[in-house]
Every structure is written in structure tokens, then in C-alpha cells.
Amino acid sequence: MQIKRLFKLFIFLLVLVSFVTLTGCNNSNNPNGDDLKFDDLSVPLSMIDRVSTSSMPGDPTAKRAIMKAHYSERIKLLERIALETDNCLHNYILKAVTEGRSYTYLKTVMNIPCGRDMYYDRYRKFFWLLDRARD
Fold this sequence. Notes:
By secondary structure, this protein is an all-alpha fold. Helices cover 65% and strands 0% of the residues.
């Protein structure tokens, strides 16, 4: 939870810097600083959660770090849910979910150690657990 808060704070700061840059509210335009005004800097929480880095000016390295952290978190979530679903079948479930492999492929090429009914039962359970974890 602490990492999520820090990540949201980091995103908020990036949005704030972008806002200041886009609106020209910095003292580089006026060396006296007498026209430095911030009318309303409130940023909705939904904007912080789903910020799009494509429209943000600034450091491409920071954008890449944000995206890497986002996708890394998603990958860990998928791996954790797959392990919760079934300890023996988690690799097969991940292969099917991430690469779109069918049961036939898993049976013929990867020699999955279960029948079709059991596999699809675990497959549905995976998505059920994933839905619960994302809420």
C-alpha cells in the first residue's frame, strides 16, 4: 500500500509540473515573479490513477519509468493470481492468458497434466480471482 501511495504522489507531482509548464505559471517568464498566480491546482483522483504519459511534456526517462512500474505491477498481479488459482497449472494458465494459447496447444505441445474440463475450470477461476483482485 505504501508503494501505491508513493506512486500516486509521484504521478500527482508529474501532473502538477506539467500543468505549470503548460500554463506558463513559472517565474522564468517574469524575473520579478509578480504575476505568479495559481488559480486552481486541484487534480481529480481519477486523473492521477489513469494519467496518460503521451500528452505530458517532459522527461522521456520519467515517462518510461512510470510505464515500467505500471506494467511491472500488472505482471506481478497476474503471476500472483495464477499461483492462487492452481499451483500445478499456473504456468499453463499464464501461457494461455498472455499468449492466447488454447487447451489443444497446451495438451499437444506442452503436455498439460490435466483434462479439458479441469483446465477450463481453473481458467475461469483465474479470471474470477483477477476480477476480485482488481476491484
